[in-house]
Records
---
Amino acid sequence: MAAKSNFFDFRESLLRKPENPPRAGAAPSGREPITVAQLTADIERALKGGLPPSVAVKGELSNYNHHRGSGHHYFTMKDGSACIDCVMFKSDAIRLKFVPNDGMEVVTTGRVAVYAQRGRYQLYATSIQPLGQGALELAFQQMRAKLEAEGLFAHERKRELPRYPLHIALVTSTNTAAVADMLKVLRRFRFLRLSIYHVPVQGEGCGAKIAEAIRHLNSCWMDGERASPQAADVIVVGRGGGSLEDLWGFNEEAVARAIAGSTIPVITGIGHEVDVSIADLVADYHAHTPTEAAQVLTQHWRAAGDGLDNLTRRLTRTTAATIGDASSRLANLARHEFFRRPTDRVNQMRQRLDDAERQLTMAAERRLNRCRRHLDDSATRLQRRDPAHAIDLRRQRLAHLEARLNREAVVVMRKRRAILAGLEGQLVALSPESVLKRGYSITTLSRDGSIVRSTSQLNAGDRITTKFSDGDVKSIVEDGKQGRLFE
């Protein structure tokens, strides 16, 4: 392929149909087939030969993705009819001052190359600039919206500046006119203690230095109390005027969060009156210039002399009025009747004392009478509860119960005797002797004494005993059926 051919000529040559199509498996024009890698390399050489080393592409951002692991940015540039994949490596992305978002119109600068592993071409971006406004201005607006949503600009969270600060810390560069302007105002008050914390106020990394200085000054405070006599009463963050790029260090998030987290009140004097930074919005007080910041801090000190004179005059007038009022009261007391006839007051108090004594005596007697009555009642109750008295009562009750028990026992015994006599009569009437006396007899076997109740119990030769009321008759059974003779 000729060196002068470009990507579009190469694309046309690939798409052009040959007049005599080669047979299957044969290479065009008799050439050997090439590999995919060789074809991709040819395409990349065509791209590099046909396009400039760097191109600026205008379009809309889409599918923007910041890969947290690698730090690379992947996105798509598109317009109404086409799109192209883009990548910005971490080394280039760290220079972005704003946060790209989907739908943003931008101009992306970079080179076009082939990504062989995916077989596609893409734009390797080195910078991204928003259309219609600068990158720094857009980054400023994004940071402002973010911190405002968190409430860092709210007036409620801002601390009040001390009225009479004695130790002022200046966070600025010693090589700027701003520090000279502030010192010109502050040195009029020679009793003030000034500390200058030198930091770069322009260039890469200045924001981190400023934030570190604010945190270091706050290390002298702990839980709202001074942990060191070196602790400052107020911090001034100052710098002279400049472009947005020059003042960019004061728009960094690290500076804003350091000011918001400061225990010590922070006042900013950055740039000119028209300059407003993120640090100004977060600070407890925003002075438009470094000189104004110094004047705000010393405004009460400037009026302190006049205020002291006014207080002295007010104190003199108040003291004179107090003394005059006390003199008038003393004169009125001197004219009082008590001082003209002091014995009258003494006699009056004596009379009141006598009345109080009589009332006390009467109250004591009433109290003693109540106590005597209560004591008599208590003695009566104690007497009733005397153990000897209780024993006598128990003895009387026991004697009464004993007599009652004896009476009940006699009655019970009589009833038991009557019942016993009745049972005895029944037993006598039913006894065998009584039955025998009525003409009956009882026959028993001599061998075992069992009563003969039937003739079936008798056998010939059995000895039997017949018992009558007046004696017994013994006999021998000769015939077991002999009993029929008595039927």
---
Amino acid sequence: MLNSAANKATTAHLKRHNETLLLRAIYATSAISRVDLSRETSLSRPSVSEITHNLIQRGLVLKVGSAPQANKVSKVGKKPTLLAFNGDAFQIIAIGVDDLFVVGALLDLRMQVIDQTALPINGALSTDLLQLVFAIIETLRDQATRPLLGIAVGTPGIIDSESGTVFLASNLGWKDLPLAQIISERFQTPVYVGNDSDIIAIGESRFGLAKHVKDVVVVKIGVGIGVGIISDGHSLRGHTFAAGDIGHTPFPGLDEICLCGRRGCLETVVSWWSLKRHLQNFIVNFPDSHLAQTIGQRPITPELLADPLFSKDSDTIALIDPVVTYLGYALLIIVHLLNPAMIILSGSMVKLGDPFFEQVCDLVRARAFPYMTREFQILANMQDERSILLGAGALLLEKELGL
């Protein structure tokens, strides 16, 4: 009986594995014949025929015509049928919890955006924030024109991506929250949840700035600071799903209390909540300063600091210098520890502008061991909203279809 059960499990696993091989090969091309699929995957032609028949029955693959004959003189034999992935078979709801907004998109299986929406967070935490996520999903679900493959969510925090549980997201008021389960029960569809930095890294490596780059690190600096790691083409999450949580690493010279309750965390300097707090204190203490007058009564955003920083306002530089220094040293640790080919800076703090980004790059290049930075790039991602949505979609494709 044990051998029988093992054989059944092995057979089912092999069938799934072969189906994934074929589906990936079809997804990677605009159209391909069964003969070429057999050649690419080393699967027998009967196996290819059986599996592709099942994929056609499920609507994931379409017949799209015939391949031209290799020998145009001879008309003997049947022309091979071309197969193509059906990007309209299902649709995906992708959600990103950002610094200021909950953003969402309805995507097809080729990651083309069908509809997109957003709601401002306005300081919402815990249950109130969860209600915003529900509202975005409901809006996009009502716009869907195909069956839903599922929902994927990217959010800050330490997250078990297998169960979809948010162990800790201090800035959001979430702790031990079974987010995937809650959303799945409410909307009756598969749900996957991942750390936002991890998901942005997936999105960038598959569809964005790091396409075809096997070793890339995304550092998202927003309300907090998080790191997403792609090493040799694989996402690294760590033993307790906290790989890259450098924001709560104590750094020498820092002693302020972090939102996590500990002292001296990197986030007490390198984060938007910290910089905004320091700026607010400065404005209260120096209301007649040029910086305070420039900001006036407007809501404080990173973009407001970009112009004074570009103009080399001394007070703005004094506020930003510690951020540059500590972020630069954090990136140096990443460079020497992981040796990536590329680091992508993402998040709202990137909107401080080119002077901020260039100072950080200069520090890293000046202090890094030269051998570590050969053919190495640091890039700024000004569209992290798009990356998190595409990354969430890619996570769902991987979990549901093996793509």
